[in-house]
């Protein structure tokens, strides 16, 4: 596990070195990934999508696909690297604890390798160094192009009609108690609104909710980004000495 953790630090390092504040990049990149994840839950709800497996896995997959769709390759790699790095940090912190087999989310290192695999699988020729630096085993790497193709076919079957009709029904930012989170999420909202016409409007609130989390609330068509989650990411970036 420590080898994988160290590897992701190296994967992220070239892109992070160009930025003025690597800690801010780590926090922002993870906020982007989580926001896309919650949007996945929203689309599953609004489009009444069939999910053959765990919904959390489907939302994770969409997060990687949207990062690749919205961002240029170098920036997308940084986001995926920082997101995977966060999973590796969580796994390291939980060493010695009994795995939470009851949890709806996959184990942190499973999510780590899935993120790396799906990103690598979109362009194996040009992302081989990324996969190698992230210690993606050859056995898994051999299937990543197929995994990515299946993910694209599955999600884009439903995303493409939304893209064809864009712009249309929009995502909007409502309450925003944290300026940093609001700045990050506002840019994503603007970009997504240009690319997709959603089934119904989604509002996003950034506010304290008493826990480190983010939610999609179906009855309200609302994504809640907890300020505690960003605080947790800042603490994690500080502890990792980014």
From TrEMBL:
Q: Where is the signal peptide?
A: 1-17
What are the entry keywords?
Answer: Signal
* InterPro entries cross-referenced by the UniProt entry: DUF4344
Q: What is this protein called?
A: Metallopeptidase
What Pfam families has UniProt attached to this entry?
Answer: DUF4344
